[in-house]
Amino acid sequence: MTYQGTNIGHTSTYTCLSGYQHSCGDLYRTCTGSGAWSGSTPVCGSERLAWHNDILLKRLRNLTDIIINFLNVRSMAASRN
């Protein structure tokens, strides 16, 4: 993290270490009049873990689509009877 200081209006800039990527929170924050930093605390996660999570999310979406399609077909067949 680099920052100008802790006076109102000063900014801080966060970066993730090598092998990690920004996953949530704000990378640029400003010291506010209340003495707090704006935004939310940034979080860095393992690039490898993020890659695995992306694959799992895609598989979950595909499975959800299959289940929804199955239920729609089943519902249409039941309404015909």
From TrEMBL:
Q: Give the UniProt keywords, A-Z.
A: Disulfide bond, Sushi
Organism equals: Dreissena polymorpha
Can you tell me which residues the record assigns to a coiled coil? none
Q: What's the protein here called?
A: Sushi domain-containing protein
The answer, when asked if Ion transport is one of the entry's keywords, is no
Locate the Sushi domain: which residues?
1-46
Pfam families, sorted = Sushi
